[in-house]
Inverse folding.
């Protein structure tokens, strides 16, 4: 299944260091993401660390695993989800007013796995609907991070 790059961004009136503390604490992901219910970084947040996640959409609950693929303090955090081969990233850029935060989901080679495509088609309303929901979730996540950083 072809998987377009999904992206959302927000300007935050807080320094990069403040935003980084929130984004890099992956175990706080359930506070930001409407879909994520639990995340644990095995052995702490570091390059190569494994993550275990529990996601929920309505009555549907599913686990995923991931590996942190990039960790550049105050610049970028990225992790690759094992089950569907998508890479999620958060990139931070200083601005005059604070920080620009960009969240991106891209699929390796432009496609997700056959199992993921089947699940999205059968249980999540199809590719277009699910991708729109993911973008809305990304915007919600960024708004929640912004609110926490600006407090």
């Amino acid at each position: 299944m072809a998987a377009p790059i999904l992206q959302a961004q927000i300007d935050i009136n807080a320094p990069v260091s403040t935003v980084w503390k929130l984004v890099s604490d992956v175990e706080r992901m359930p506070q930001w993401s409407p879909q994520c219910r639990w995340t644990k970084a095995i052995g702490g947040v570091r390059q190569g660390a494994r993550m275990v996640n529990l996601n929920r959409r309505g009555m549907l609950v599913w686990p995923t695993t991931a590996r942190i693929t990039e960790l550049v303090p105050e610049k970028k955090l990225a992790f690759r989800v094992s089950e569907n081969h998508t890479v999620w990233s958060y990139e931070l850029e200083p601005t005059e007013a604070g920080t620009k935060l960009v969240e991106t989901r891209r699929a390796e080679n432009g496609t997700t796995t056959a199992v993921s495509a089947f699940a999205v088609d059968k249980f999540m309303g199809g590719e277009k609907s699910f991708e729109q929901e993911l973008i809305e979730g990304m915007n919600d996540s960024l708004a929640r991070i912004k609110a926490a950083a600006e407090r």
Summary: The radius of gyration is 15 Å. The CA atoms of residues 30 and 58 lie 15 Å apart. The chain has one domain: 6-150.
